[in-house]
């Protein structure tokens, strides 16, 4: 039985367009100067990557490179993504299409994929055969030594304005995926990538009309074949949760990626712009992930920060232990100590590194009710836990 590890960077929903466009919907226009550095999302990130010596194995892009099928924005955004990927010294770059990348409103021509196919430069996949399969079937499996990515074009049926309401997978795609996975007999890290969300994501008034049609069937199928993570974009609302499966009685972590540079999220929901990196380990068929998230603020560039409009700077997924049990274990480890190093907690109880945000909040509240305070919060990489009762 093999163990696998993978470092992933995620760049989603750039919504890049030329500055002359009437609708100003991005911090990243195709013709903007790179000075001042902290006003340019790409240049600022590259400086951060170089300073902190960040690196990746794999870059995933869940779509919406451009905005409203802006041709120059599409061309430039793919170049931007490649620039970031190369700076990270990444090996594999895998992307899918978003609804803005498909010319369903016939802005350029009456063929909805004319721009997407005409960009070339290995968009959205390097291998010719993989691209052909994605165009024809609406999905493709990309295989590597230690990972398997199911790339889904959830905008596959956006033939025109009428059909471009939400995402969709059909029975042919589901049959293809099942037949493919039935032949698999390994434990590689298995990730699904799409633009639209496969399960309801209507918080913050974001609506329910754009969910992937047949998304539940897709998740059940992926769960049956031990999918480790589902990543999507589109909502511009960074959100990490589990989808509980019915047939396999398991669950799949679902990461809604924050938008890299769109402005609509800050205007309508107050959500920030994000760049995520995920460290994944899979041992004995059990997958754990740790996510680090940087936030972009105009004039300040990319920072590790925490605010109510953002996403946890540090979070994770894969913990299968009851939160009440974890709280009891922590209290037992701390004992009567006034303060205790958090790194010693994670050494003895590593599962605390892999809590999704809602689990981390629940654990924090349980400990607080018993007089134990974590500082800084779990979302910001704690250093100590204090026993208030021991002080008294």
UniProtKB/TrEMBL annotation:
<dbReference type="GO" id="GO:0016787">
    <property type="term" value="F:hydrolase activity"/>
</dbReference>
<dbReference type="GO" id="GO:0046872">
    <property type="term" value="F:metal ion binding"/>
</dbReference>
<dbReference type="InterPro" id="IPR029052">
    <property type="entry name" value="Metallo-depent_PP-like"/>
</dbReference>
<dbReference type="InterPro" id="IPR057846">
    <property type="entry name" value="wHTH-Calcineurin_assc"/>
</dbReference>
<protein>
    <recommendedName>
        <fullName>Calcineurin domain-containing protein</fullName>
    </recommendedName>
</protein>
<keyword id="KW-0378">Hydrolase</keyword>
<dbReference type="Pfam" id="PF24408">
    <property type="entry name" value="wHTH-Calcineurin_assc"/>
</dbReference>
<feature type="domain" description="Calcineurin">
    <location>
        <begin position="316"/>
        <end position="369"/>
    </location>
</feature>
<dbReference type="InterPro" id="IPR050884">
    <property type="entry name" value="CNP_phosphodiesterase-III"/>
</dbReference>
<keyword id="KW-0479">Metal-binding</keyword>
